[in-house]
Amino acid sequence: MDAENTAKIQVVLGNHLLDIPDALGRYPGLVLKTLTDAFFFIRVDQTILNQILLRSIFGSALHAKRDKTPYRLQAILKSCQSGTLDKSSLEAKVYRHGGITALVALFAAATDDKRTSSLLNTLPEDELEGFVKSINAVEPHEDFQFLVEQLKRKKMSQSSRPTKKMSTPGSCLSRYRQRQLPTHNETQGLGEGTGHFGLEFGIRDG
């Protein structure tokens, strides 16, 4: 997307114009219902639906409390940093596009929702890159941020022995069970809200 022409959605509530996060904080059910109702008027392919689901999964993972480092995260991070991880693996791609923060988000999301890996693998390379880069724009929970900062400060251990290249089948995410994407009937209903509001779409230059 052209950086000079980016769309922004705002909510009109009475005489107030709110950004989406503020509006969701006040009237989550009403805002979500209005957003989903918009899909009556547009057609989207499965890739877009997968991206919507992925943003929900990653958003929950970024804002969740955590007291443990996801399994094998440190080992995979070291392999990414040393260049020994298979470059075609999902972990290597995520690290290449988004660095440590994105890799931590990947492991957190995969720990919380086993569909994460299979959903990400449905995205074309350019859309995967765009999605991963957008992760860094999200303000995460302090537990997540603390984990990222810990990993950034941690120096890679030095070893005189040659490292063995890791293959994609041996990566940690490949061991997660693959699940079918949820059907419409399996998704949770949205909470009802009260009141009326509209959505305003604008194009910002610069």
Account of the protein in words:
The protein has 206 residues and is mostly helical. The chain folds into 2 domains: 61 residues, no CATH class; 132 residues, no CATH class. 47% of the residues lie in helices and 11% in strands. The protein has a 3-stranded antiparallel β-sheet with strand order 2-1-3. Helix 1 packs across helix 2. The radius of gyration is 19 Å and the shape is globular. The chain starts with a strand and ends with a strand.
SSE layout and pairing:
Elements (H helix, E strand, L loop, with lengths): L4 E9 L2 E4 H7 L1 H10 L8 H18 L9 H10 L7 H23 L3 H5 L4 H11 L6 H12 L43 E9 L1
Antiparallel strand pairs: 1-2, 1-3
Percent strand? 5-15%
Q: Stretches where pLDDT falls below 50 for ≥5 residues?
A: 166-172, 174-198, 200-206
Q: Characterize the overall form.
A: globular
Number of individual domains: 2
Number of alpha- plus pi-helical segments = 8
Structural class: mainly alpha
Largest sheet: 3 strands, antiparallel
* First-residue to last-residue Cα separation: 13 Å
- For the secondary structure, the number of strands is 3
Q: What fraction, in percent, of the residue positions are helical?
A: 40-55%
Mean pLDDT: 79
Give helix and strand order, one letter per element, not per position: EEHHHHHHHHE
Chain oligomer state = single chain
Radius of gyration: 19 Å
